[in-house]
């Protein structure tokens, strides 16, 4: 049974790894706000469990076993978020902190039943893919709104951050997953976008457009 601390490290690794399944110790330290000696100690422990491959002064590389362990933590978190929204009526802006607590429950049966009740969702309320019970993840082919061009019509599919502040920003503008967006104009100076949706027009900064993923 993994400890709460180990699970937090695994989840951080999951979110930080690049396309080569590698992450620097410095990045992991910053993500967790934990000092380097403690991070190095935990990484060495993970290497003993064959969750990572690690050599001094080189990036950490997640093994297949490590990826599965990390994916299963993320699965619990995202299923919990979906359950809170779909079955308990929470807003998508209010579920992250609760899921942070419930993801550490050590019962596969509990989360498998949650999955069943939800009819096996593929995405969480923020559009992020939910790993299956074996830790497998199908990454959707989404792109940032900031990479789109004028006159394109796209659909909001996901957000890159689930912070309460950002999601409330979207709520105030009646912007949710599944909304069709038409790019009316891109400002050359700062790449802000004039977007039409739901019978209204809004200007979004490049910072906002970077955080919206579309298909």
In short:
It contains eight helices and nine strands.
Low-confidence stretches: none
Strand content: 15-25%
Could you tell me the number of beta strands?
9
Main sheet overview: 6 strands, antiparallel
CATH domain topology of the domain at 143-214 = SH3 type barrels
CATH H level, superfamily name of the domain at 143-214: Ferrous iron transport protein A (FeoA)
Shape: globular
Q: N-to-C terminal Cα separation, in Å?
A: 39 Å
Mean pLDDT across all amino acids: 94
CATH architecture of the domain at 143-214: Roll
* Class inferred from helices and paired strands: alpha+beta
Instruction: Report the CATH C-level class of the domain at 143-214.
Output: Mainly Beta
Q: What is the N-to-C order of secondary-structure elements (H for helix, E for strand)?
A: HEHHEEHHHEEHEEEHE
- Helix content estimate: 40-55%
Please describe what this structure looks like.
The longest helix has 23 residues. With 215 residues, the chain is an alpha+beta fold. It is built from eight helices and nine strands. The model has no long low-confidence stretch (mean pLDDT 94). Helix 1 packs across helix 2, helix 2 packs across helix 3 and helix 4 crosses helix 5. Belongs to the DtxR/MntR family. Homodimer.
Key features?
SH3 type barrels; 8 helices; protein dimerization activity; transcription; 215 residues; Arc Repressor Mutant, subunit A; alpha+beta; HTH_DTXR; DNA-binding
């Amino acid at each position: 049974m993994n400890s709460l601390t180990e699970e937090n490290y695994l989840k951080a690794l999951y979110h930080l790894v690049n396309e080569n399944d590698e992450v620097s110790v410095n990045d992991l330290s910053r993500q967790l706000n934990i000092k380097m000696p403690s991070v190095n100690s935990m990484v060495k422990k993970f290497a003993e469990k064959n969750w990572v491959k690690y050599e001094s002064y080189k990036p950490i590389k997640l093994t297949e076993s490590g990826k599965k362990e990390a994916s299963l933590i993320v699965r619990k978190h995202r299923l919990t978020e979906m359950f809170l929204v779909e079955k308990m009526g929470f807003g998508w802006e209010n579920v992250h902190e609760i899921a942070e607590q419930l993801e550490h429950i050590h019962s596969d049966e509990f989360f498998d039943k949650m999955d069943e009740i939800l009819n096996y969702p593929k995405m969480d309320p923020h559009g992020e893919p939910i790993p299956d019970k074996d830790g497998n993840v199908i990454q959707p082919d989404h792109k940032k709104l900031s990479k789109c061009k004028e006159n394109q019509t796209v659909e909001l599919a996901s957000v890159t951050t689930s912070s309460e502040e950002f999601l409330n920003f979207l709520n105030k503008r009646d912007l949710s997953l599944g909304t069709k967006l038409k790019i009316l104009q891109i400002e050359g100076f700062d790449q802000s976008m004039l977007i039409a949706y739901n019978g209204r027009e809004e200007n979004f900064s490049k910072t906002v457009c970077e955080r919206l993923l579309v298909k």
